[in-house]
Amino acid sequence: MQSFKQLVMHPLRFRLFLFTQLPSAWFAGVRIVHIDEKSAIVTVKQQWFNKNPFHSMYFGILSIAGEISTGILGMAMIYKNNPPVSMLIVKNEAQFFKKATGTIRFTCKAGEAIAQTVATAISTGEGQTITCLSEAHNEAGELVASFLFTWSFKAKQPRQS
Question: Where does the sequence pass through the membrane (predicted)?
Answer without folding.
Answer: 56-79
